[in-house]
């Protein structure tokens, strides 16, 4: 131990640890981003079909109601 300087690891050890922490953080953010993208795509796929079916059902029902009013 010298004044203002650690012998074990020193600044270079701290810099390596900081760099490695940043790398892990960036890697984790990329995984989260990928997971969110996959989740978003899944939600879009799983909701598109029911919405289309519901819209078709409403259109058919509206058509039937309009035909009944014409009679």
* Overall morphology: rod-shaped
Query: What is the gyration radius calculated from CA atoms?
Result: 30 Å
What do the pLDDT scores average to?
Answer: 82
Largest sheet: none
Q: Into which percentage range does the β-strand content fall?
A: under 5%
Our count of helices gives 1
How far apart lie the N and C ends? 100 Å
Number of strands: 0
Query: Strand-and-helix sequence, N→C?
Result: H
Fraction in helix: over 70%
Low-confidence stretches: none
Based on secondary structure, the structural category is mainly alpha
Defining key terms:
rod-shaped; mainly alpha
Your description of this structure?
The chain is an all-alpha fold and 71 residues long. The protein contains one helix and no strands. The relative contact order is 0.05. The protein is rod-shaped, with a radius of gyration of 30 Å. The longest helix has 61 residues.
Summary?
The chain is mostly helical and 71 residues long.
Helix-strand layout with pairing:
Blueprint (H helix, E strand, L loop, with lengths): L9 H61 L1
């Amino acid at each position: 131990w010298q004044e203002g300087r650690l012998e074990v690891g020193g600044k270079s050890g701290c810099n390596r640890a900081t760099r490695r922490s940043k790398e892990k953080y960036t890697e984790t953010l990329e995984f989260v981003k990928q997971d969110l993208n996959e989740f978003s795509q899944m939600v879009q796929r799983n909701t598109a079909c029911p919405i289309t079916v519901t819209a078709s059902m409403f259109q058919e029902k509206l058509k039937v109601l309009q035909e009944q009013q014409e009679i």
